[in-house]
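TICKET: design request
STATUS: open
ATTACHED STRUCTURE:
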C-alpha cells in the first residue's frame, strides 16, 4: 500500500477451514429442500462437496469430471434430463461462475421438487381450463335460450295460425308479433306478408262468391219468370 508517508506490504492468511465452514453453513441452508451445492476451481478441481467421498484432501484433490456422477453434462443445458445422484435420488444440476473468482458453483436440486412444482402448475392449468369450460357452457346455454326462445315462440304462433286456417276460423287481420330483429324476425315478417297475401286472396274469393250467389239468385228469378210465361 502507499498512503502518504506510509508504504508497505500486508499479507492476510485466510484459514481454509473457516472458509469451508462458512460454505458448509450456506450449503446446509441450501439443503433444506434436499438439494446441495458444491464448488470447483476453474480447472474443475474440487474445492467443496458435502459428500465426504468427493471432498478434497491433502492426499488427493478430485476433479468434477472424475466423479461417478456426470455433473458437467447435466449442467450444460437447462433442458437436460435428471440424473442419479450418489444418494440414489434423481437430480437436476445448475452451474454458475462466481464473479471475480475463477470458481464455479454447482447447485444440485432434487427432481422431485421440480416435479411437484410442475404438478402444481398442471393442477392450476386444469383448474383454469375447467373454469373456462364451465363459463363456456353457461354462456352457450344462455345464448341457446336467447336464440331458441324467439324461434320456439315464433314457431308456436305460426303453428297456431296454421291450425286455425285448417279449422276455418283463422283471423288473418292480426300479425304474428315478435321482438326478434334477426333472421327469426325476418322469418316472422315473411310469414306475416304471406298471411296478408292469403287474406287478400280469401277476401277476393269471398267477394267473388258473393257475386256468384247474386248471379245464381238472378238466374233463379229469370227461370221462374220463364216458367210462368211457358
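STATUS: resolved
RESOLUTION: sequence designed for all positions
ATTACHED SEQUENCE:
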Amino acid at each position: 500500500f502507499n498512503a502518504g508517508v506510509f508504504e508497505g506490504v500486508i499479507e492476510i492468511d485466510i484459514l481454509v477451514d473457516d472458509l469451508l465452514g462458512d460454505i458448509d453453513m450456506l450449503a446446509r441452508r441450501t439443503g433444506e429442500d434436499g438439494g446441495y451445492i458444491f464448488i470447483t476451481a476453474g480447472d474443475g478441481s474440487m474445492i467443496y462437496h458435502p459428500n465426504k467421498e468427493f471432498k478434497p484432501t491433502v492426499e488427493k484433490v478430485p476433479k468434477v469430471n472424475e466423479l461417478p456422477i456426470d455433473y458437467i453434462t447435466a449442467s450444460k443445458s437447462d433442458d437436460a434430463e435428471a440424473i442419479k445422484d450418489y444418494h440414489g435420488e434423481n437430480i437436476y444440476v445448475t452451474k454458475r461462475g462466481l464473479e471475480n473468482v475463477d470458481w464455479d458453483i454447482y447447485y444440485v436440486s432434487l427432481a422431485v421438487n421440480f416435479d411437484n412444482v410442475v404438478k402444481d402448475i398442471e393442477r392450476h392449468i386444469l383448474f383454469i381450463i375447467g373454469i373456462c369450460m364451465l363459463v363456456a357452457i353457461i354462456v352457450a346455454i344462455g345464448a341457446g335460450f336467447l336464440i331458441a326462445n324467439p324461434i320456439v315462440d315464433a314457431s308456436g304462433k305460426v303453428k297456431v295460425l296454421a291450425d286455425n286456417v285448417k279449422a276455418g276460423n283463422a283471423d288473418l287481420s292480426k300479425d304474428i308479433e315478435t321482438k326478434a330483429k334477426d333472421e327469426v324476425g325476418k322469418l316472422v315478417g315473411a310469414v306475416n306478408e304471406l298471411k296478408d297475401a292469403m287474406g287478400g286472396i280469401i277476401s277476393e274469393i269471398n267477394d267473388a262468391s258473393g257475386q256468384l250467389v247474386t248471379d245464381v239468385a238472378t238466374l233463379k228469378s229469370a227461370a221462374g219468370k220463364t216458367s210462368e210465361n211457358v
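CLOSING REMARK: Helices lie at 16-30, 71-76, 111-167, 183-229. The chain has four helices and seven strands.
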